[in-house]
Structure formats: C-alpha cells, structure tokens
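In this section we walk through a basic example: taking a raw amino acid sequence and producing a predicted 3D structure, encoded as discrete structure tokens. The instruction is simple. Fold the sequence below.
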Amino acid sequence: MALGAQPLVLVRVHSATGSVPRGPGTWMAVGSRGLIATIGGGHLEWQAVEHAQRVLQRAQSCDEVVHFKLGPSLGQCCGGALAVRFQFLAASLHASTVASLLQALKPFYQTVALFGGGHVGHAIERTLRALPFDLTWIDSRDEIFPVSVGEGVTLEHSSPVQAAVADLPSGALVLIMSFSHAEDLDVVAQCLSRQRGLGDLPFVGLIGSHTKWATFQNRLRERGFSDEELAHITCPIGVPDVVGKEPGVIAAAVAAQLLQHRVVVS
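The resulting token sequence is shown next.
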C-alpha cells in the first residue's frame, strides 16, 4: 500500500517510558486497504489500529494523542507506557505534501560499502535487505551483480576498485571481500589513507584469516601505515563464536557485527 490516493491515519509513537516494543518516532499508516509499517506488533498495535480505524470512519480532521500502558490490560507485560499520536490525512492531500511527509518519516539508513561480488557478497546483500542499511555494492568486474537486488542497493563498477573509496559517504561501514587479495590490499590501503585524512569510516572489515591479516599488516607497514592505524581494520570479520564458513552463515555473523557499529538516530 502506498501513501496518498486514500484517507489515512498516521500513527506515531510520540513518547515512551520504560520497556516498550518501539521508541519515539516509530510510525505506521492505517488506511482502508491495509497498513504501512509497524509500531511494534502485539496487542498494542491491534488497539492502535482499531483506534485509527475509528478515526478513519469519522473522516474528520484529527490530531490527538492516546496513552497506552503495557500491562495486563493489553496482554503485554513489558511494563512500559507510550503516548501514541493519531493524525488524519485526507485523500486530497497534495502530492508534494505527501512527498514531504514521506521524507520526514524516512528512517536513517546507514551506508554499507561492500567491495566484492562473490558468493559471500551476494549472501550479505540478501541478508541486509531486512536491516536498516543502504548498500553500495562495488566490484571491478563486469556482469558480476545479480539481476535483482533489494531496495536501497546501489551497484557500482569501479576500475581500479579502490577508487570508489573516495566517493563513499561519511560514516559508511566498509566490508572488503573482492576476488583478489591484491584488490583487497589496495582497498584497505585506500581506506586507511582516507581514515588518516578524514577519520570518517567508523568500521572497516576485511574478510580472511588471521594469517591473511598478518601478511597484509606487513605489506601495509611497508606502505607507511602505523600499527595504530592498522588497528582500525577488523579481520577476520563477523561476530565471534559463530561457527561455519557457508556464505549465509558468514553473512549473518557480519550483519550482526554491522548492527553493533551502526549509528542509531531517533
């Protein structure tokens, strides 16, 4: 369901205290044809949807805040409380107003820069589809990317591949897993150079073993990088103690690690 072309009730978590499913700013839209997004599910959401449907039936201007306590009455034992705002949006809402509203409601998705279109790269792209990241996927080879990718994925052919580092947005989380150790080394070196100048890449992860990283460290020292600078690189990647080298297993471990490093904007 898309915003516009029908009356809607915008439901937003206005404030929250204690343990709650979702925090302030979380939203959903309730229309006659269904829902967009979620404020956390469970009985809380069921009651919020029911209230929104009553607002829809009145079809009158409405901007009100309703308080919910997550106790026995809602069948949710979180123990917190929320103030939920209900705002009626008429079907005649101008397209530009809808666009502005969508932009204001859009969550912050941090950029992940993925260098490498191999099996693990493909698995990571699929895993990140459900997570709060935008993906910039980079490879030096032609025709390496799949025909279909998730929303928020930008495909980039770069030769030499390390040249793409300069154009990454500030705050990008970087994953390096090209088909070539030589390419990997060049991308790591370029990331370290950017970090030396700007310090704006909070996470740079390199796929590989401890042996690979030991070799890379020697070569990077020869290029003039200090041990302090090399400590910014994470290798191997993925949260510890996840066993398995299958692409899907690696992707899950890496996605969990990225979530540990992401910036949360409320």
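Looking at the output, two observations stand out. DSSP finds seven helices and eleven strands in the chain. Residues 42-58 form the longest helix (17 residues). In the next section we compare this with other chains.
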